[in-house]
Amino acid sequence: MKIINCIALLLCIIGAINWGLIGAMNVNVVSSLFGDMSMLSRIIYVLVGISGLYLITFFWKLDNGNM
User: Fold this and answer.
1) Which residue has the higher pLDDT, 67 or 54?
2) How far apart are alpha carbons 29 and 4 in whole angstroms?
3) Phi/psi at 36 (nearest 5 deg)?
4) What is the predicted pLDDT for the residue at 60?
5) Is the pTM of this model over 0.85?
6) Do 30 and 16 touch, CB atoms closer than 8 A?
7) Is 59 exposed, middle or buried (0-12, 13-18, 19+ CB in 10 A)?
8) Hey, where are the domains in the chain?
9) Rounded distance, CA 44 to CA 29, Å?
10) Which residues lie closer than 8 Å to 18 by C-beta, 6 or more apart?
11) What's the chain's average pLDDT?
């Protein structure tokens, strides 16, 4: 697996766990670690979002049998 795929997948997993904790226990791990909407928190959120958009391309790879 390419390194970019691994990084994107890892960031999306971190984002999913964070959202799960927000929904289940009202705990935002990213804000707790890096500050509430600090520059670093925003960068993490943007990277998670970009990773999610990048992983959407995997659907086309699955459809074409390239994955």
Assistant:
1) 54
2) 24
3) -75, 105
4) 82
5) no
6) no
7) exposed
8) 3-64
9) 11
10) 28, 29, 30
11) 91
